[in-house]
Every structure is written in C-alpha cells, then in structure tokens.
Amino acid sequence: MTRDTLQERLAPWICTIALLLFWEGACRGFAIDPFILPPPSAVAGAFVKYWSPLLKNAWVTLWTTLVGFAIAVGFGLLLGIVIGWSRVIYNGLYPMMVGFNAVPKVAVVPILIIWFGIGEVPAIITAFLIFFFPIVVNVATGIATIEPELEDVLRALGARKMDIMVKVGIPRSLPYFFASLKVAITLAFVGAVVSETVGANVGIGNLMLQAGANFQLPLVFAGLVTLAVMGIVMYALFARLEVRLAGWAFRSGMNASR
Amino acid sequence: MDALVALDDVSLTYGGAADGTLALDGTSLRIGGGEFVAVVGPSGCGKSSLMKLVTGLVRPQKGAVTVAGREVTGPVKIAGMAFQNPSLLPWRTTRDNILLPLEIVQPHRSRFRAHRAEYIAKVEALLATVGLAGCGDRFPWQLSGGMQQRASLCRALIHEPELLMLDEPFAALDAFTREDLWCVLRDLWEARRFTVILVTHDLHEAVFLADTIHVMSARPGRIVATRQVDFPRPRDLSICYEPAFVERVQELRQYIAGVRLA
Ligand SMILES: Nc1ncnc2c1ncn2[C@@H]1O[C@H](COP(=O)(O)OP(=O)(O)OP(=O)(O)O)[C@@H](O)[C@H]1O
Ligand SMILES: [Mg+2]
C-alpha cells in the first residue's frame, strides 16, 4: 500500500526527467542545430542567465491572469447563481452562455486591444473571459440540477428559495465550479500570453516575442517552460482547494466506483 | 369526524388548462388525526400528486385541501416527507443531514444556533430508535441503502411533524431490509401516534402498517374504495402469513386489477 503511493508520487517526476533526458539525447545524437531546437541544458542556461527578466515578466503574466481570475470568480458565481435560480432565466440565458463559451477567446484579443489599447488591461480581460463563461455555465448547471424531491422536502417545510440556494444549491455546485477552474486555468495563460504577444510591452508573451526576434531560442523555450510550470502550479493549487472544499464529491465518487 | 387532512372534490391539472394532464379529478378524502393511512393505486394515477397537494407544494384548480382545520394555500410546515430516493446531502454527515429541517422550520430555525447541543442529542436519540446508533458521524455514501432510508426517515421526523408523508419509501430496498423498516416505522408510530400517509405499491406493506387503505383509480385519480384494516396492534411480522391477512391482500389485489382495466 505505502509502496504503491510512493510509486504514484514519484511517477510524474520520473516521466518528466525521462522526457528531458530523451530531448537532450535526441538533440545531441542527431546534432540538431540549437537555433532550431535547443537542448534542455541550453534552456537551463537561459534560465540561469536571464532569471531576472524571466521572473519579472512571469510575475506580470501571473498577476494579470490572477486578477482576471478573481473578477471572473466573483461575477461568474453571481451570474451562475442567478441563472440557476429560475427556470425562465436559465432557459433564456443558458444557450447564450454556451455560445459565448464556445467563442475562442484568443480571437477576441485584437478587439480588446482596439478598445483598451496596449497594456495589461487586454490581458486581464482575456483571462477574465476565459474563466468567466465556464464558471457561469457550470455553477448554473450545478444549481439547476438539484433533485426535485429534495427541493420538495425543504419547500414543504417552508424553506425560501434563498435557503435552498445556501443549503443545497451552492455547496452542490462546488464540484462543477472546480471542474471548470481546472480546465480554465491552463487556457487562461494562453489568453494572457497571446494578448501580451500582440499588445503589451511586458509579460512572458512579450519576452518570448522579443527573444524570438533576436534568435535567442533557448530563452523562448525558457519562457515556455515557465508558463508550463505556472500552469501546473495553479492547477495543483486548485486541485488542493477542491479536495478541501468539495472533497465529498471526490470521495463519494471514488468509493462508489470501487 | 375530526379530520386532520381533508380533500373536497379536488381536481389537479398539470400544464395548460386545455391540453394539460388531468392528474386528479373530483378526489375526496378524509384522514383523522393519528390515523395511519395507506394509498394504493396503479402507476401514474396521481398518488404523488396527492402528496404534493396535501403538503401545499401544488394548488388544486378546483376544490379545497384542508390540513389541521385551515385551507392549504402554501407549504404546510407541519409535515415531514420521505421518498423512495433518500436524497441525503453528500457533503453533510448523517447527523447534519437530519438537522437540516431544524435549520429551516420555525421555531427551531431561530433557536438553532443557541440550542445546537440539545438538537444534536435529539438526533442521536432518534438515530438510536431507527437502529443507527453511532452512525451520526458517517457520510451518506458510507451507509447502505437501507441505512440511508432510515436516516431519511429521521430527517422527516426530527421536527416532530404532526403529519408524516411517505411516497414509496421502501420501494428500492430488498425484502428483508424492507420488513425491518416496516417494524421501525410501526414502532415509531406506536410511540408517537403522528398521522401517516403512506403511498405504496406493496399491498403487504399497506395491510401490515395501515389502519385505512384508500384505493385510487387509474388517471385521473380518485378514491374508488376505502378498506379498514382492523388487525389488533401492535402487529407482529408473523401476521403476514395468517390466512386473514393474505385474504385481505388478495382482495385488494383483485380490486386494483379491476381498477387498472377500467
Ligand atoms: N410536474 C408535472 N408536470 C406534468 N405532469 C405531471 C407532473 N407530475 C406528474 N404529472 C403527471 O400526472 C400524473 C400523475 O402523476 P403522479 O406522479 O402523481 O403519479 P403516481 O401515482 O405517483 O405514479 P407512480 O406510482 O408511478 O409514482 C401522471 O400522468 C404524470 O405524468
Ligand atoms: Mg409517485
């Protein structure tokens, strides 16, 4: 049992190291031009050499994404609850929300730049848009799918709509909420980076664009790795939070499947 | 007769008046205080609709529903309900699930925070009477189906309702567990003598538990027959095998078969 969990814990690290070794080996073995594909050692070198600009720009990307995220959680929860509140609002707005959710947010970036100009605002709004619609759609679904019998039990006791929301609807929608966050977080960095590439003079996206223009490919890759790491860390944070706040869904599901 | 629940010539239509489903038509029914009533009838005849009318979850288009001397215009609040699906909240422990009605219904709602310990003691006592002593800390998914149904029964009873509404509560259980729960319900009723309306498809269950059995016609439902069951109480499970009991069940079965064809 303990050995199993140890193996499970080590597995992701072993896989990552194996990939890096394979990459390094392929670069050396086939003598690939480092201007085309730099080996991990060169990328590591870029990290050492440019750690300060990498850190500074990564920080900008991170905070713009997080600000967009925070606004999206606030408004997304609110609108999700409103939409899940009544059948009529749900039927009226849900298709539209699904439609907005289907629009590639990256395609909106040029419009945002026209509206808000160059800078952090388009990046924040892009991240916001990427988080917002999945949160709304998932929270609304969680609330709208309360078992009618449970609702009857509570309504017969004189529960107001608000009671049912607080006691049942909102806790019930938490697993849906976290599911949407885990999908959105990886996309949110994409959005922020694209808008930085097109319309900003700071951020990881901008750094990578400049490095590419100067043929500093190891630095471009260092930027990519930074984004990947930030994505993994954020995902892990959300997964942690999910276990704490909505672990019941996980555990009951796990137990049922065993 | 001091009827706790009375339906007078009640009609209920779902959907539009013109093209809607007529679920109940001209249904009349009287249930005395402390009576144990079973309602049987073919599937889709409007039994669940009858429950919703009595608890005030839906309003009839025609006729009047009276509970405890007052016409029902909204949720009645003196009723506890349990269904075939226990529908416990998976994020709450069994104890917290059973506490839920107290967080909603008055006067408990405003006393809840201050008297939490007292309420928890009440839950523990109730759990013990249904054979779930010491299970309060478990989550619903850690309970078997029968245990969940016991917990659901506790949730329906925790605010000491005058009226207990049960809609096929034991339908999803295996035969042995079902008989256990019959006895749990029988003992709770013997001890407290609340009024029970039990919807069931199981005629043995109806005859074993009830004082009065109402038979409903196919949709649109109305009460077409009422049978008194006068086996002495408290009843033991062994009466299910006595000829008089089997005869009663047989008579009801034939009656319902006739109703379904009609
Ligand atoms: N919310 C609703 N909207 C529209 N029609 C409904 C609704 N609820 C019930 N009905 C219809 O009313 C009729 C009676 O339904 P009801 O649920 O009361 O039957 P039932 O006797 O409880 O059936 P069962 O024994 O299968 O549980 C059915 O024809 C059903 O289709
Ligand atoms: Mg029913």
In short:
The complex is a heterodimer of chains A (258) and B (262). Chain A has helices at residues 2-29, 40-49, 51-85, 87-102, 109-116, 120-144, 148-156, 161-199, 204-213, 217-257. Chain A is mostly helical and 258 residues long.
Strand order of the largest sheet of chain B: 6-7-8-3-9-10
Return the string of H and E elements of chain A: HHHHHHHHHH
Order of helices and strands of chain B: EEEHEEEHHHHEHEHEEH
Q: How many DSSP-defined strands of chain A?
A: 0
- Kindly state the mean pLDDT of chain A as a whole number? 85
In terms of structural class, how would the helical and strand content of chain B be classed? alpha/beta
Which of globular, elongated, flat, extended, rod-shaped describes the shape of chain B? Answer: globular
Number of strands of chain B: 10
Number of domains of chain B: 2
Helix proportion of chain B:
25-40%
Radius of gyration based on Cα positions of chain A: 22 Å
